[in-house]
Specification:
CATH class of the largest domain: Alpha Beta
Structural class: alpha/beta
Protein name: OmpA-like domain-containing protein
CATH architecture of the largest domain: 2-Layer Sandwich
Number of helices: 14
CATH superfamily of the largest domain: OmpA-like domain
InterPro entries: OmpA-like (IPR006665), OmpA-like_sf (IPR036737)
Strand content: 25-35%
CATH topology of the largest domain: 60s Ribosomal Protein L30, Chain: A
Helix content: 25-40%
Keywords: Membrane
């Protein structure tokens, strides 16, 4: 019996050793395997919950949350998602026991923009920034309630920087107004609500206009609701679309010829010939289309029941300025209303400088040197071929320290009589000052000086020999308080 007892003891000891080895190295509940499993589960849970910003690192059952958090609420939601990624968890059940946040706050978004679009098919697309997951969920539910069963797509993102006041209420109001339109979009940019769309019912147009105009401060409403377009041109990433009715084949050919002359991208023609005559409407196309096709995006609509042409979208400052000049002389019954937003290009890249003045001067010099800011002989206004260079110059000025000023030095050609040289040089400088002011530069930062050809060579200290022949020179100044 003693030998048998010893044998059983040895077998039991071997079993205990095997169970111990399995528990330490093979069991799902050992420390290494548990940490790996929790890492996978918490990462998957964050992704499923839409916390793309969040990074989780497991230290045993202790979770460390990091990343650029869009809002404080987002940190709380992400922490709760991690804590419940493996059920109730805890020490006994092997889940996350604690979440430590070392997440940084992402900088506030400015401008804070939320957007909703209703397609001609009735679908709603929500995008842009929202201040919390709770508001995001509420707006999505609101959209589904007013969509009459049409699809609702959510592209919204959490961000900080929403203005004070009833932001959610204004966004919901915008959704309700959008739902009553045939198609259109709503943009809430900081405290400004813009409602743009089409409604064939005049009563709907009037009701939406009244509601949006009368929203409470500090918010402001900008309604732009029109009837169905008879003809339109649309610029987008897909190219230029020409759509709607024209009265004859000759009108169609003229519009196509005009578009091909001024637009270099893909052109889609969906125009049809209809039994209709609107005398004088083609003059608006002739004056507006050549500059409109240079928009970054937008629509040019013709509504014979309204004032005529409505032009919306985004364009460079020079394109907008030339378009306004071209359509200014249109008269009733068909005039043109421009509701477009100016968008600057990127400023030129320059070598880093030691001081704000040097950095600014480098950008301004690069804009002037690489562009073509030129004038017809004896003319004060820059040639329209100078538009791209003027836009880059405006972008350079906008990128400079707001405390800096600019001396705009203009001069005339040597062929002009000397008494007229200084006056023409000053007129050219004034024209450039006016352009920069129109892009949003404070007039107090700008001054204009005119030179004759000889005086300019003496007064302008240029870094390169070719600068003496330029009609415009710009000097960056430190402004005294």
């Amino acid at each position: 019996m003693r030998l048998l007892d010893h044998l059983f003891a040895l077998v039991s000891l071997a079993g205990l050793v095997a169970m111990g080895w399995w528990g330490v190295y093979q069991s799902p509940q050992n420390a290494a395997n548990l940490q790996m499993e929790l890492q996978q589960k918490t990462t998957a849970a964050l992704k499923a919950a839409g916390h793309d910003w969040a990074i989780v690192t497991m230290d045993g059952q202790h979770a460390i949350l990091s990343g650029k958090a869009p809002t404080t609420e987002a940190v709380r939601d992400a922490a709760l998602t991690i804590l419940t990624a493996d059920g109730q968890g805890g020490l006994i059940f092997g889940g996350v026991t604690q979440v430590e946040s070392v997440a940084d706050d992402a900088p506030p978004v400015s401008p804070f923009v939320w957007h909703a679009e209703k397609t001609p098919e009735g679908a709603l697309v929500l995008s842009g920034h929202v201040p919390s997951r709770t508001i995001r969920k509420a707006l999505l539910a609101e959209a589904q309630a007013v969509s009459a069963g049409a699809p609702v797509e959510d592209r919204m993102q959490l961000a900080s920087g929403a203005p004070v006041g009833n932001w959610q209420g204004i966004a919901r109001l915008g959704l309700h107004q959008l739902a009553s339109l045939d198609s259109g979009d709503v943009t809430l940019e900081d405290t400004r609500l813009r409602v743009n769309g089409v409604a064939s019912d005049k009563a709907v147009r009037e009701a939406v206009t009244t509601e949006v105009t009368n929203i409470a401060a500090p918010f402001q409403g900008q309604p732009l609701v029109r009837g169905a377009s008879l003809w339109l041109a649309r610029v987008s990433d897909d190219g230029l679309l020409l759509k709607g009715n024209v009265s004859s084949e000759s009108e169609r050919r003229e519009i196509l010829t005009l578009a091909k002359k001024h637009y270099q991208g893909k052109l889609v023609d969906e125009m049809v010939i209809a039994d209709q005559v609107y005398g004088g409407w083609m003059e608006g196309v002739r004056r507006g289309l050549p500059q409109f096709v240079h928009f970054q995006s937008g629509e040019m609509d013709f509504d014979p029941d309204g004032a005529g042409f409505l032009i919306l979208g985004q364009a460079s400052p020079s394109t907008l300025a030339y378009l306004k000049q071209d359509v200014a002389s249109l008269t009733a019954p068909y005039t043109a209303e421009i509701r477009a937003v100016s968008r600057l290009p990127a400023p030129p890249e320059v070598v880093p400088a030691a001081t704000p003045v040097e950095a600014c001067q480098g950008m301004v010099d690069a804009a002037v040197a690489t562009g073509d800011i030129s004038f017809a002989e004896g003319a004060a206004e820059p040639l329209r071929t100078s538009g791209p260079a003027l836009d880059v110059l405006a972008a350079s000025v906008a990128a400079c320290d707001p405390a800096l000023g600019f001396s705009i030095n203009g001069r005339a050609e040597a062929e002009n009589p000397k008494p007229a040289d200084v006056a023409l040089g000053r007129a050219r400088a004034d024209a450039l000052v006016a352009f920069l002011e129109a892009t949003g530069v404070d007039a107090g930062r700008l001054s204009a000086i005119g030179y004759g050809p000889t005086a300019a060579e003496q007064a302008i200290d240029s870094a390169d020999a070719g600068a003496d022949s330029r009609p415009i020179e710009i000097t960056v100044l430190e402004r005294s308080e």
